[in-house]
Amino acid sequence: MRGWHRKTGRARLPRGEGPWAWLSAGSVSLSLLLLALLLGLLASRGLGHFWPGDVALVTLQDGRQLAGREVREQPLPDGSGHERLYRTGNRDLDGEIWDWVALAAIREVSHPPELLVLERRRWSEFIGRLVALEPEAGPRLEGEAAWSALTDRLAELEAGREAIRELRERTILPLVRRLEREGKSAEATRALAAAEARVAELRASLGGARLVLESVSGERLIQSLDEIVRARRPNAMSGLDKLVAWGERVWRFLSEGPRVGNVEDGVWPAIFGTILMVLLMSVVVTPFGVLAAVYLNEVAHQGRLTRLVRIGVRNLAGVPSIVYGVFGLGVFVYGIGGRLDQWFFEASLPSPTFGTGGLLWASLTLALLTLPVVIVATEEGLARIPHRQREGALALGATRLEMLSRVVLPMAMPAMLTGMILAVARAAGEVAPLMLVGVAKLAPQVPLDGDFPYLHLERKFMHLGYHIFDAAFHGNDVQAALPIAYGTALLLVLVILVLNLTAIFLRHHLRSRHGTLSSY
């Protein structure tokens, strides 16, 4: 207990505590602080990207004007002042969407409410003014009438695009796969032709209208309306409107697929692919890891060979992940997958079905990668169970199998879940082996649908870790990709956190139920 020193009158630490306890507490506090700073950085850089910031109209000392959103400031290389980076858009007019401007060269900065930001399918954003809307039939609209008509037409376009998307996903793609699997069928061919005709009809109804746009430098641009995804006037939006728009953009990021080089719209296929791959990996690695640990600790003779096997298992945990990727490519993809194609899918050769990277081979490769972690954690949990528990069960007449299944394994369940937590944390963040055994840069269709067998293990999939790598290093515009990389990294951390918290909750429940040792 904490007491007082008789001579000095100061509080003294309990016996056994000292500077090492404070050093340990300080290390834990520093780790938590660094983790909080990391999450704060990812959240501010990632989620802040979706906020519809004001668009500045910048007038320079020489009279030239530009419009864009302020990104950041930095000192000039010669130390004579600072420069500011603006995202100006209009790649099809200027060839670039970024502009560095020295602060000394700026004469005036204003925020006119009529400045328009258009998200387009091609050429990224347009920032400027709306001059007129020219519908397919009817008079030319200008000013506020053009803006009102534009918002109404974009709502109709979004409904039409959603109808086309539903037709493709629920009708056309299943019919195409059916034709590929069963060969030509008159019924399927007629249904496919009818669906494609309906898509062509919807596409024809989307086009026709045009926008007359003007940049702040005076350049005119004629833009087809069906190329416009969304339009907004950030300077005319209230704080509540911006909050609603921010929520909509975050939801699109979570629920839609990517476009424009993976730096626009969402990452839903990558979220789904990551979670599904981790779940499949867990289903595969758990029984093999537990059985191996039970054999090494409960069944095998504890001699030199067993010790060598344990050393080998621990060394496998330190093998670089890319080595497992090469192994998975050679054994799973080309070996087993190629053999399956020869046995069951000979008609589709030389186009491979299982003889190429896919969800199944990626899950098996990561299961092999994380198997040593599960074995070590489970075996350590089994070693902590007192021998009197085993002896008591055997003394009461239980067989060895009943003793293992009803006494030992339930008490070791928290240790197994600890191994699973470590395995999930490592598998969800691995990228190198996945690049060889199934991950794809762009796979907008998730490998789970209504077409039999519903879960398509042979398909390629997207992964959050690879999406970060691709967006940050393989994009044409690093500045545009960085916020997406930050947001995806935050999402990956949250996905791992949710999976781990689920396992931790189960571990706590089993620990309290079976009364296992608190040292697990």
TrEMBL record:
SUPFAM superfamilies: MetI-like. One of its GO terms (molecular function) is phosphate transmembrane transporter activity. Residues 271-503 form the ABC transmembrane type-1 domain. One of its GO terms (biological process) is phosphate ion transmembrane transport. The keyword Metal-binding does not apply. It is a multi-pass membrane protein. The chain crosses the membrane at residues 20-42, 267-296, 316-337, 357-378, 407-428, 484-506. Residues 176-205 form a coiled coil. It is found in: Cell inner membrane; Cell membrane. The keyword Transmembrane helix applies. Pfam families: BPD_transp_1. Its main location: membrane. Keywords: Cell membrane, Coiled coil, Membrane, Transmembrane, Transmembrane helix, Transport. GO terms for cellular component: plasma membrane. Belongs to the binding-protein-dependent transport system permease family. CysTW subfamily. This is Phosphate transport system permease protein PstA. It comes from Halomonas stenophila.
